[in-house]
Structures are given as structure tokens and as C-alpha cells.
## 1
Amino acid sequence: MVKFLRERFATMAPYHSAYLTEGVILNSNESPYSVPEELVAYMKERVGDLLVNRYPDTDSLELANAVAKVYDVKIENVVCGVGSDELIDCILGSTLEDGDKVLMPYPSFSMYSQFTQLNSGQMIKVPLKSDFTYDVTAIKEVVCKEQPKVIFLCNPNNPTGCIFTRDEIRSILEVAKGLVVVDEAYAEFSEKEISMIPYVNDYDNLIVLKTFSKAYALAGARVGYGIACEAVINLINTVRPPYNVNIFSQAIGTWAIEHRDIFLENARRIVDNRKMLEQGLRNLGLKPYPSEANFVWLTLPESVFEALEEKQIYIRKMKIEDSIYYRINAGTPEENNKLLEALKVLV
Ligand SMILES: *Cc1c(COP(=O)(O)O)cnc(C)c1O
């Protein structure tokens, strides 16, 4: 296979992630709660009328319309994707020439650098401060100096849970000539008003990405969306694959956004679970960094990871520079307790 691989991908490897269905799964920031009964009932009823013999609506208009209504924007301001991952790829695919610069704070969502490499861009990483908060001054300095074509701001940040304030994002938008992508995959979990969606029409270089994979408990449906001014949406639509979002996911996503109160209430429960997890960790002498998302970021003694895995408790391990950190998403109170009980004898 290697002999056919493009040279520029030589250092890359196939993406791998174990498909876990049993145990305490706290490693992918998914919702610990299954989808609402009402959604299951709706899909059972709806599945018979979905025209699966036909291609789906290539523009996911029913879903886009529901999204537009919720955020009080026009349908022309919305694009739907196979998860927001696909939209990240489309943004880079529609903008980058070979070697063009892309900026991301570091650590942040790994797909930004993955897709930048796939689209022949050059990633510039601006480190977070030593307390794992965003270094806005450094970001602005690098933006001014390098003027990257695309800038990724993950808010709240995966994997650290830190946030930008709206004013900080505005101040970056003011100096950026490139496209600023604000990834709000976890914004439903933040107790601060951080969303930039109300301002998308004030800027010609801002796009906000959202997903149903986290707060909406629909990671398996692979559906997300972007909100931006019409020109930016058109840019993405130029490279977006036809019929990208399948007919089931369009229906599921539409129901979910139309019933978002159910999911937002669940998000608040998950935030309570995260607070419980943080307190439990602190009681064990551990020091999770402050988080506005559904997960925490911390260091753990060596060998804890493997010991937890043996007990079928799964958390995420990440190497940042030369240090190892862990990201643990909040589970149900029962799951949190299983983790904390296991940690009690390990730390
Ligand atoms: C999970 C996640 C996404 C969403 O991925 P999907 O492709 O929509 O499942 C996007 N951005 C960040 C930062 C994430 O953590």
C-alpha cells in the first residue's frame, strides 16, 4: 500500500479508535445518556416514509431550516455536514493553496492539524499558557505576523476545557485577514455566554461550527453544521460532497434541534456530573484544570491508565511535548463513582 501513498502523507497513519461498547467509557466526550425515548419513537414511525431508494436532499434543507430558526439566521447562513469534522475538511479544502498557513492553539482538537496536512497546508501551533488557558496575546501576535489563511479557535477547548470570551474572539477577528473558525462543539456545556453565532453576519471571515455528537448524544448519527455569512457558506458548498448527510441523519438532526430543550437539560445534568467528578478528583488530591466543557484535563500518576483499562474504565491519554496528560469526560453519577472508587486505590 505504501508504494501508492502520496509522499507528503508518508508520516501519517490510518486513524484508529477502538470501538468500545462495554465498560465505563469516558474517553471520547460522548454523552453518557442515550437518546430520548421520544426520538426513538419518532424514528420508528418515520423510518417507513423516508425515501431511502432516493438520494437525500443534497442541501439538508429541512435540517438547515430548523437550525436557522433556532438561531434566528437565514437558511443561507447554514451548511450541514457529516459531523463537523467534514466541515473542517471542507473549509480547508476550499481555501488552502499548497503550503498555506493555518493556525491553531496547542493543545486543541487534533483534527485541525490532521485535515491541514491532508489539504497540504502548514500548521502553526500557538501554545496555551502553562496553566492551560488560551494565550490571546500570543495568538494575536502570531496572527499579525503570519496572517494564516485559516484560524481554528475551539471554544470551549478540547482537550483542556478553557474558553475564550467573546471580546477575546472579537479582538482576534479584528486582526485576522483569514477565516476564523470558532468550533463550538462543547458550547452547550459552558455556563458563560460565549457563542459567536449571533454575530456571524457582522463578519465576512467568521464561521461557527456545531455538532450533534456531544451535547445532543448523537455521535453515531454523524451530523453537524456550520453557521456563517452567505459568502462563507458558499465557499464550503463549493467543495462539499453531494448528498453528504444521509437521510436518517437529516431526520434525526432535525428532530433533535427542534427538541433542543430536552438536550440542553441533559447538558446541564452532565455539567453537574462534571462538577461531581471534579470534586471527587480533588478529594483524592488530584488537580483537574478548570473546565467549561463535559470533561476534565489533568495529570495522573503513571500506570493509572493501564490499571483503569484492566477494570474496563476508559479515559483518554495524551502526550503534550514530553508530558502525559489525561482527559476524562463526565459520565453518569454511577460511572463517575466507579472511576473514583478505582482511582482511590491507585493514586
Ligand atoms: C467532537 C468534536 C467535534 C465534532 O466532531 P463530529 O465530526 O461532529 O462528530 C468537533 N470539534 C471538536 C473540538 C470536537 O471535540
Note: Residues 29, 83-85, 109, 154, 158, 183, 185, 211, 213-214, 219, 224 surround pyridoxal-5'-phosphate (CB under 6 Å).
## 2
Amino acid sequence: MSRLLLMGVLILGSVITGIGIAADGEKLFAFYCAQCHGSEGKGDGPNVTGDFPVDPRDFTETAEMNKLSNADIRNVIIDGGPIADKSPMMPPWGKTLNDEEVDALVQHLRKLCNCTGKAD
Ligand code: HEC
């Protein structure tokens, strides 16, 4: 096999696997976020008890979510609540999730709020 053809096969192969493992915002949300933010994002997950100092954001509140840009959301996901003067009850995920996964989550939150948010 010529070297060029081999390279072509390798590139095609990685494109196909790339699609296969594309981050799925809905699944990531169910796995990492729903216990606090609720499976439908309403801020009513099973972890939230009476002694929670603040309620997790209800992502279906369009007006509130429209105040945030995608960059604002991304920063809070990566660095946790305190980066935006919010509660440390919102954990940082930067060591758990890669960029692609964080972006997929931002897109998922935009579906939940049915809003596009502030421009970055
Ligand atoms: C341990 C519970 C918990 C988990 C798990 C959690 N959050 Fe949060 N989250 C919170 C709380 C509590 C707040 C509200 C903090 C505040 O208002 O001071 C919050 C706030 C946020 C905000 C900020 C909204 C705003 O108004 O600025 C975003 C965005 C967010 N969470 C996204 C996520 C995503 C995405 C995940 C999953 C990767 C996640 N959270 C997992 C508890 C959690």
C-alpha cells in the first residue's frame, strides 16, 4: 500500500472515530449535573436537601439564563461557582471534563433554557 493511501486511511479512520465519540451534552448532564440541577434542569435534583445554602440554578428560567453569555456558563462549569461570585456548592469541573464536553454542556443548557444568552 502506498504511504499516501495509508495516510488517507488513517485520517479517515480518526475522523470516523471522532464522530463516534463526540461529546453528548444530554448524557453528560444526566451523569454529572442532574443530581443537583435535576434531570430536566429545573434545579430540583435528588441531592438538593433543605440544608443547601442556595438552590442550584433552574436552567429552564429563560430570563435568568439570557443574562449569561456562553463564556459565563463555560467559566462556571470549569472553575466552579466562586469564579462568578456564586456558591462553592457549584463544583469546578475543569479537571473532569475536556473542552468539547464543556461546550456540549453549554449547548445542552441552551436547549433547556430555550435561549441564546448574552453575546460573548
Ligand atoms: C453538588 C451540586 C451541583 C452539581 C453536581 C452541579 N451543580 Fe451547577 N450549581 C449548583 C449550585 C448550588 C449552583 C448555584 C450557585 C449560586 O447561585 O450561588 C449552581 C450553579 C450553576 C451555574 C451558574 C448559573 C448562574 O446563574 O450563573 C451553572 C452554569 C451550572 N451550575 C452548571 C452546572 C453543570 C453544567 C453541571 C454538571 C457538569 C453542574 N452545574 C453540576 C450545584 C451543582
Note: The two ends are 48 Å apart (CA to CA).
